[in-house]
Design a protein that fits this description.
301 residues, alpha/beta, 5-stranded mixed sheet, elongated, disordered C terminus
Length: 301
Amino acid sequence: MAREMVEAKQCSGRQACRYLRLSRATYWYQSRPATLRERQMIERLHVISEKHPRYGYRRIAALLRREGWRVGKRHIQRLRRQEGLRVPPTKRKIIRRGMSTGLPTKATHRGHVWTWDFIADATVRGGALRMLTILDEYTRECHVLRADRALRSTDVLEWLQKAIEAHGAPEYLRSDNGSEFIAKIVQQWLAENRVKTIYIDPGSPWQNGFVESFHGRLRDECLNREQLWTLTEARVVIEDYRQEYNQFRPHSRLGYQSPARFAAQTHPASAPVGLRPPCAEAGQNTTHQLYTTTKKTNPLD
């Protein structure tokens, strides 16, 4: 208001400050120009924000500190507001109200509880996409993220075997009551390999919150940003996201470390355990001779 009065030549700056009870130091204050270091940081902030448009100021501040910049989250929040880089808010869905029964088993170490589920999407040409996700609830590592037109119980069992051969067998598997997870061939194979199952109550997705949260990040940061034309392209893009999520993406619940770094610091990798081969049909007897897998490079990573 003081500047408008002065520009309209209604009074001087001194008189405007006296009329509006404004400090003259505030009226004449001019901020100092940004230093070269600050301009370089703002340029880097733009690069990270354009590459990861759904990252908030806390996650971007963690990435900048990882690169060697001495910044705080409030500093990055102010700069992003100044540069117009704020993340647009998403429409929140109305969460179903109800009494949660709680988690029967909470993961306390790596390989304690795995969770698996499906997420659906489609290619631009209209073809269906169904993705199988297998996640470690403790380290948040995504062991499997497989896209296909359709996935049956035998396909689910095949990818579970690959994950176990690479990372070792979990003690528990948490899932919903989908037909692929409650199939007899799957239940029989899990029982023979002494992997316990945890089925959530019907209509209670919040009891499987770890994988639901991952699916939210996957859809927000990958599926909603990409145009997937073919199944092959979808597999490449989704696998790239899985690698970035495991190796690079800071996770707030892990102290803004990536899941792979958190897993390496807390629980060094152990040799995979032996597995029983799956039966060809439900009810068919399987051999009781265990075969052991040699430790080698993770084919999924």
